[in-house]
Design a protein that fits this description.
Blueprint: E1 2-4, E2 19-20, E3 23-24, H1 28-36, E4 44-48, E5 51-54, E6 57-64, H2 66-71, H3 80-85, H4 93-101, H5 106-125, H6 133-147, E7 149-150, E8 157-159, H7 174-179, H8 183-188, E9 211-215, H9 217-229, H10 240-243, H11 250-272, E10 288-295
Antiparallel strand pairs: 1-4, 2-3, 4-5, 6-7, 6-8, 6-10, 9-10
Helix pairs in contact: 4-5, 4-6, 5-6, 9-11
């Protein structure tokens, strides 16, 4: 359930132990005061088992060889147990269990625990079922953590304030990128072009969330050149009405975009750099950058 907060009304009911941006609130009035202090563009919140939270997305990235990643399908080079026991997935796997189990209660986590193992086993055995495409999409992050190389030392790009931009495309940033002259990035941004564990769209089961985007080597070269040629000052060219509905939300949105693009520039440079040795899903040359967009749809 989602709600909009105005200065005169809190639409819906919040629990006493509600959360917002990692904070706990002892009373409804304390929560309401905090929410009403937010810019209007930031006042959309969601309600879940743990109370109120802001709607937001995040972006993670991996340096990966698409060919080597695809070669893992049906190869039996890896097992579900290896992936789930990997140190790289120590923090993530419970989130996957909760998501597939559709909740954070003990019995739901237990239900979700069996589903990643079944999905991973099907991938590595090559026994794919298009009806399980969503489960495969959810465990792909586990596979990438173990076999590819996390960009930015595991940091994530935040799409929180810019999640609420007035004319947002499915990728949120597309109109903002176009407006500041990053047309190639705007075109490639949030492209739904990953079909893993299938090798192409033909015959692939499809799930559109979480959203994976692959920037192939040629695209990385184009994006690197564009980001180098378009100065950061061009972010000031983005009209205020594209960033926020209220004036006090404009600059925070612009700053979030600025920080995100700085991180993305670094990820692109990492993906283009040669590797000293081969990895399970990383080549010495010619790697791509795979992005995961997750969070609120």
């Amino acid at each position: 359930m989602c709600a909009t907060l105005t200065a005169s009304r809190l639409v819906a009911v919040a629990q006493p132990r509600s959360r917002l941006l990692g904070r706990r609130f002892k009373t409804l009035s304390e929560l309401a005061r905090t929410l009403l202090a937010l810019p209007a563009a930031q006042s959309r919140v969601g309600f879940g088992r743990r109370g109120w939270r802001m709607s937001e997305r995040f972006l993670r990235g991996w340096k990966v060889s698409p060919e080597k990643l695809q070669a893992l399908v049906g190869s039996r080079m890896l097992t579900a147990r290896e992936i789930l026991a990997s140190r790289t997935n120590a923090k993530l796997k419970r989130d996957v269990f909760m998501t597939l189990g559709e909740g954070d209660e003990r019995e739901e986590v237990a239900e979700g625990r069996a589903m990643p193992e079944a999905a991973l086993t099907a991938i590595f055995d090559g026994r794919l079922d298009s009806d399980d495409a969503y489960n495969y999409g959810r465990v792909l992050e586990l596979v990438l953590n173990h076999s590819a190389k996390r960009a930015g030392k595991g940091a994530a790009i935040s799409i929180a304030r810019t999640y609420h931009v007035p004319k947002a495309a499915p990728g949120c940033w597309n109109p903002l990128l176009e407006a500041c002259g990053l047309s190639a990035l705007a075109k490639a941004w949030a492209s739904d072009n990953v079909f893993f564990p299938w090798s192409s769209a033909a015959g692939a089961g499809r799930t559109h969330w979480p959203l994976f985007t692959l920037f192939h080597p040629a695209v990385l070269d184009e994006l690197a050149a564009e980001l180098k040629s378009v100065p950061e000052s061009h972010l000031e060219l983005i009209p205020a009405n594209l960033l926020a509905r209220e004036e006090d939300g404009v600059e925070p949105c612009r700053e979030e975009l600025r920080q995100g693009l700085r991180m993305l520039r670094g990820w692109i440079n990492e993906a283009r750099a040669p590797e000293p040795s081969e990895g399970l899903a990383v080549a010495q040359e010619g790697n791509a950058l795979m992005l995961l967009m997750d969070g609120d749809q």
